[in-house]
Design brief:
Chain B: It is found in: Membrane. The complex is a heterodimer. By secondary structure, chain A is mostly helical. In chain A, 73% of the residues lie in helices and 1% in strands. Chain A has a domain of 219 residues. The relative contact order of chain A is 0.10. The chains are: A mainly alpha, B mainly alpha.
């Protein structure tokens, strides 16, 4: 189709998101009386859905795939649209649509909700840009485009101490890690003489005396990735931020923003710092990611197991899932036979995770909307008043734990099997053990919802409203989580093809 | 055909979930009769022969590729052979009866209860028909989820503990079994291109097993056998992995106990037969003596435990442990009658234990106690229920012309003359001794609760049970007698499917 439409068409999803964000901002600024919660939510949802449709259309028509002439390069190679970029854009757009739909009910009595929608869509634009960036400079700019709206979103309840404190913590850690990331980029530039990822990758083979500088730069870049994906050692902002932020924002950050961190990792550590050249130059980032993955998943799971608040448990569980997805980079090997499989599996896991984790946080958003409280005990007996939403939550919990009837089973299975095939049995074994542990705390939620009795007969009276849009978002996420099991074939095939094209 | 059956049952579950509580039970019963009719239709047109895993003709076979994992395809692969068809019929037969038996005791959140029952039935049908490992594993695990809720929400006072114990035990066991099986598939390497069980079975029989991560094929096969055996042993359950069972049974409401004992335990023995004994016969016969010893210990120890109980439901629960011991003994002897009898006993025990749990449940509905010392002379007040209960108990003891006799008789015939098992007569004689204990505890429990002058510690007015409580009992009793008088209606096809399994051993030695 490149002969009919200009190549820049490949950027359509990013442009659509940017346009939606700008339009929302424009209305919010120029005609403050015309803005309303509903119209802003509808506009944001439509914009992200159209972007999703465009992404799916581009993927189906094969733009950027190896069969259609390979990746589309734009703007002096600074932008590269390939199947992986489109795959991740689909995740971002799906999560954004779910979040803005849910936010409509969550912010029903907020004074100025319109700003929320433009900020979310701007962050999503940054993520989509991150997915297509092919130059370290673009990576950094896009990363900041994601981070800046995120800080504001976390502190969106500006009169709420928890929200503001969380935003402040997130901002401080984020600023520090941005600085480290940028410093890492400058060191890599110093050692390789280029910012374009593929040129950096070529230069990795002839570093001569600059191995130390390049290595230090890569370590710093790993740190930046760890911040964005909420992995050890830059994970400690996550529980605070996710707990203090409005729940739709937690959903957005823990699903989409985390996936954005992974698209950077997948892109940089395949094209800029290829496994073979890095290992030949004695820069063993594979081992570094292996240790990070192991520590992250274990720490996340053990910390989640001792939480008393559901939202905080989900925050730690999202750290655990970052550990699983890190296997996608940690289990790469120089000979490369199974590299595409394991990274593709990590991408598929992030897609499934995008639905089940967003759904889980949106259920928390619904509980906050009802005002039933935050702890496991506060959720006791909710299934009697809200059976549909509780069933959806049970689906999310069992799927996050990786139980077979749900999509989370397949994505974890493919991930661990990919690691085993690539010779990383220890990572897969650790992941399996962690999955078993996770069943404990996930099933606590299900037990509270369905099996425990409410604390008092009046404790469920708060459940008196039916927030339609929130319900719709939660149910849709649950349906997607279930349907991704039979429909896992196309997802994993697309993901594996996309990942294999990078090696 | 099978897809339609499973899809219909899933759809019924959804419909019932959304139905109002008042008539969810009746709707669920009406809908659950359809899968039973479907099961009978499948039976009438059954044209399979041999064992599905060893190249036999698979009836109602469907194979559609689903996705590919690392060069091996996963497919929607279902079909029936002489081993799975009787269990499918058993499942679809027991579920409507269990639903009717729930009408009296289940008085809250009915639509959810019956919806979950049907959801479980759909997955049970899947377990017994799936012939692709992945598909089978998904159904296998999906059975646990509704069971967890059924015990946890509608159970007795200690329901939370029992539900969690059941869930954790069986999930941990599943993981162990999964790892065992996957190591086999990986060690088969390029010789298999899918997770289809017939293909894996053929590759194993052809000796394609290679080494994997430096583990020699022999060691690996033995490790996989042990991992799968332990995984399924929890489900069966075999002593010493049985402790979740009495807790789950005592806390579960009657209809759930019926399915737990009647069908869920058979998942374990079915899987042992399908996986351990069909895929790895060599390892099984190498471990024949220890496995037979565990089987006999299960028989005797389970019966002894039953002897010591005061709760009628616990008595029946422990006697299930004992009965499952017979099934394991029948499987390990690797004779036509042993393996065939074990499969037959799965069906027979499903019917008889279902009857016993239901009858105890009917008495409990009226008396609100299950303790042996709390009541006496129930026969005066509930003559029909008690009559059927006594008949069922005799079935349990192996009264001729009832299904239990046929099953145990086949097993003993098979195990007395088992060439693959050293000291076979000794094991058989010890296992037979179990029957004496069974008779002992059942007779003494019945004598003190059912007969003599009427006495009840709890303050309830006891009269004859309502028709819809008794009707399922009568239907079950008829089925037990039919199967006892004419075991060949199932045993022919079971034997046909069991013979190839037995030959798996005699080839090597």
């Amino acid at each position: 189709m490149g002969n009919v439409l200009p190549p820049v068409t490949a950027l359509l999803p990013v442009l659509l998101l940017a346009f939606t964000g700008l339009a929302l901002l424009l209305v919010d600024t120029v005609r403050p009386d015309a803005r309303s919660n509903t119209s802003s939510a509808v506009a944001a949802a439509l914009g992200s859905l159209v972007a999703l449709a465009a992404t799916v259309w581009l993927t189906v028509t094969g733009v950027g795939s190896a069969d259609a002439g390979g990746a589309v390069l734009l703007f002096a190679d600074a932008i590269k649209v390939d199947t992986m970029a489109l795959f991740f854009t689909a995740i971002f757009a799906s999560v954004t649509s779910l979040v803005v739909v849910a936010a409509h009910d969550y912010f029903h009595d907020h004074a100025d909700p319109a700003a929320f929608y433009s900020l979310v869509v701007f962050a999503a634009t940054g993520m989509a840009l991150l997915a297509v960036s092919n130059s370290l400079a673009v990576v950094f700019v896009a990363l900041e485009m994601v981070s800046l709206p995120s800080y504001v979103l976390v502190a969106f309840f500006k009169k709420n101490r928890g929200s503001v404190e969380a935003g402040m913590k997130y901002f401080l850690v984020g600023a520090l890690s941005s600085a480290i990331f940028l410093f890492g980029i400058s060191l890599v530039y110093a050692a390789t003489g280029s910012l374009i990822l593929s040129d950096v990758g070529d230069a990795m083979g002839s570093l001569d005396g600059l191995v130390g500088i390049a290595g230090l730069g890569i370590v710093m870049i790993v740190g930046g990735v760890a911040f964005k994906t909420a992995s050890v050692p830059f994970h400690f902002w996550a529980p605070e931020a996710y707990e203090g932020a409005p729940a739709p924002v937690s959903a957005f950050l823990s699903s989409a923003s985390k996936a954005a961190g992974f698209v950077v990792a997948f892109r940089l550590f395949t094209e800029a710092f290829p496994v073979g050249a890095s290992l030949a130059a004695d820069i063993n980032w594979v081992l570094a990611f292996g240790v990070l993955a192991a520590v992250t998943m274990t720490l996340g799971n053990f910390a989640a197991a001792v939480q008393e608040e559901v939202k905080r448990m989900l925050a730690y569980s999202s750290i655990g899932h970052a550990g699983y997805a890190l296997i996608g980079v940690a289990a790469l090997s120089a000979d490369g036979s199974g590299n595409g499989a394991v990274m593709g599996a990590a991408m598929a896991h992030l897609l499934v995770y995008g639905f089940m984790n967003t759904g889980a946080f949106l259920f928390v958003a619904m509980a906050e909307r009802w005002g039933v409280g935050r702890t496991f005990q506060d959720y006791a007996g909710l299934a009697r008043r809200a059976p549909v939403a509780s069933t959806a939550m049970a689906v999310f919990m069992f799927s996050l734990a990786g139980l077979p009837p749900f999509a989370g089973f397949f994505s974890k299975y493919f991930l661990f099997m990919g690691a085993i095939d690539n010779g990383f049995v220890w990572l897969a074994a650790l992941g399996a053990v962690n999955s078993v542990i996770s069943l404990y705390y996930y099933s606590r939620v299900v037990k509270a919802l369905f099996i425990d009795d409410p604390e008092s007969s009046s404790s469920l009276d708060a459940v008196d409203v039916r927030p339609t849009a929130l319900y719709a978002a939660v149910v849709f996420a649950a349906v997607a989580t279930v349907l991704l099991l039979p429909g896992f074939g196309p997802v994993i095939e697309t993901a594996e093809a996309a990942a294999s094209a990078l090696f | 055909m099978l897809e339609a059956l499973i899809a219909f049952t899933f759809a019924s579950a959804l419909v019932v979930l959304l139905a109002p509580n008042e008539w969810a039970g009746r709707l669920a019963f009406a809908l659950s009769v359809v899968p039973f009719a479907g099961g009978l239709y499948l039976w009438s047109g059954f044209n399979g022969s041999g064992n599905a895993l060893t190249g036999g003709t698979i009836a109602y076979e469907t194979q559609i590729e689903w996705l590919e994992v690392g060069g091996r395809s996963v497919s929607w692969f279902v079909g029936l052979d002489g081993i799975s068809l009787p269990l499918l019929v058993l499942t679809t037969f027991l579920v409507p009866l269990a639903i009717v038996s729930a009408w009296t005791p289940i008085d809250a959140r009915q639509s959810q209860f019956y919806g979950l029952m049907l959801f479980m039935e759909a997955n049970l049908i899947g377990v017994f028909t799936a012939l692709d490992f992945f598909l089978w594993f998904i159904f296998w695990e999906a059975v646990l989820v509704p069971m967890y809720f059924l015990i946890g929400i509608w159970g007795g006072p200690r329901r939370k503990y029992a539900a969690i114990k059941f869930f954790v035990y069986t999930n941990a066991a599943s993981l162990l079994m999964f790892i065992g099986f996957m190591s086999l598939v990986f060690a088969l390497g390029d010789s298999v291109s899918s997770f289809a069980l017939p293909e894996i079975s053929a590759a194993l029989a052809a000796g394609e097993l290679g080494s994997w991560f430096g583990i020699a094929p022999g060691t690996l096969a033995m490790g996989a056998f042990l991992a799968m055996f332990l995984g399924f042993a929890v489900k069966v359950p075999i002593v010493p992995f049985h402790t979740w069972l009495p807790d789950a049974h005592v806390e579960a409401p009657t209809p759930v106990s019926v399915l737990l004992a009647g069908v869920l335990l058979k998942m374990g023995t079915y899987a042992l037969l399908r996986f351990n004994f069909t895929l790895l016969p060599e390892q099984a016969s190498a471990l024949a003596v220890p496995i037979a010893a565990i089987a006999v210990i299960s028989v005797i120890y389970g019966a002894m435990l039953a002897l010591a109980q005061k709760d009628l439901k616990r008595i029946v629960a422990y006697s299930s442990v004992s009965s499952m011991g017979y099934v394991i003994l029948g499987l390990i002897v690797f004779t036509e009658y042993g393996v065939g009898g074990a499969t037959f006993q799965m069906v027979a025990h499903g019917l008889i234990s279902g009857l016993m749990f239901m009858a105890v449940g009917v008495i409990y509905n009226a008396t609100h106690t299950r303790m042996v010392g709390d009541m006496a002379g129930m026969a005066d007040r509930m003559p029909i229920t008690v009559g059927i209960l006594v008949a069922g108990a005799f079935g349990y003891m192996g009264l001729p012309l009832m299904a239990g006799f046929a099953g145990e008789f086949f097993i003993f015939v098979g195990s007395l003359s088992a060439p693959a098992l050293p000291y076979a007569p000794v094991f058989t004689a010890l296992a037979m001794f179990g029957i004496v204990i069974v008779a002992g505890y059942l007779l003494s429990a019945m004598q003190s609760t059912l007969f003599g002058p009427f006495k009840l510690e709890t303050d309830y007015d006891v009269g004859p049970a309502p028709f819809h409580d008794v009707a399922p009992l009568a239907v079950l009793l008829v089925a037990i007698i039919v199967l006892g008088v004419a075991p060949d209606i199932f045993f022919e096809m079971i034997r046909d499917a069991a013979v190839p399994v037995v030959e798996g051993v005699s080839i090597d030695g």
